[in-house]
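Same chain as my last thread, 240 residues:
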Amino acid sequence: MENRMVSVTFLSGELRLSGTLHLPQAKKPPLVIGSHGLFSNAASAKQIALAEECGRHGMAFFRFDHRGCGQSEGKFKDVTSLANRREDIIAAAKTLLARDDIGTRIGLFGSSFGGAVCLSAAKELNAQAIVTVAAPIALNPSSEVIAIIKQTEPDSERLIGDGEKLMFDISDHVREVSNLLLFHGDEDKIVPPFHALEIYRLANMPKRLIIFSGGDHSVSHPQDQKRLITAASLWFKESF
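reply #2:
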């Protein structure tokens, strides 16, 4: 089943955001919305691959640039926070679900920071399924994650400053989540695997945790990428 790609712009607060809707040849298909990582954008290879695979199963997929990223408005350092990205994904969902070529069922896919965004918005969006990759459950002033980001990401110091705007704890949101599939690499040096274990512990059934042996934060091993796309698309299909 071949996807048709449609450019979509929408408002989140006062900012205009940009994205791409992958539409399958199906009447009012269920929708998966992707939330990219902290420094990433809608051109994420994982999201593009998952969008294509979802299309083969008759599901629509929307990937977009959060505020301050890619083609969307906003200055990254000023507008980037979990709360603001949560507002973005909720605005995206309202925009897409108002279309007459999309059904009413929705799933969320998030990588790293985007995973936390999805988990924080899942209940409000009544998401039927959530899939996260290397998602953190919390960032705080004593978190090693911010220090590691500054060490590993070029220009991160200029973009996030002391990281104060990035602090969050989504534990209470996770306690309200179900139908959750988690992926995490056991050698993730940016978001350690204990984050996945804690998310899994707090979430409700049904839930599943897949740990990639020797896997890193970006899921760079081809065999892990293939397993991720296959398992994630089937999780959404079976949940819908």
